[in-house]
């Protein structure tokens, strides 16, 4: 799976927009929307980190010839 930087940036922009609107309009529901967008962005990063960890482990096993041990 490849990291979708555009989707990630879009979520961050959405969070920023909602937070600004929440502060301007004093609307707590917009803070929730900002928080949810940040949670989605963090989930994307988490998935990417896990994929990266697996690739590093696989490459290390191949390099040290310890595959499947």
TrEMBL record:
It comes from the Bacteria. It comes from Azotobacter vinelandii (strain DJ / ATCC BAA-1303). This is Uncharacterized protein.
């Amino acid at each position: 799976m490849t990291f979708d930087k555009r989707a990630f940036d879009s979520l961050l922009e959405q969070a920023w927009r909602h937070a600004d609107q929440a502060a301007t309009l004093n609307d707590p529901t917009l803070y929730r929307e900002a928080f949810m967008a940040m949670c989605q962005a963090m989930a994307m990063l988490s998935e990417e980190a896990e994929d990266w960890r697996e690739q590093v482990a696989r490459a290390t096993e191949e390099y040290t010839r310890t595959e499947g041990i």
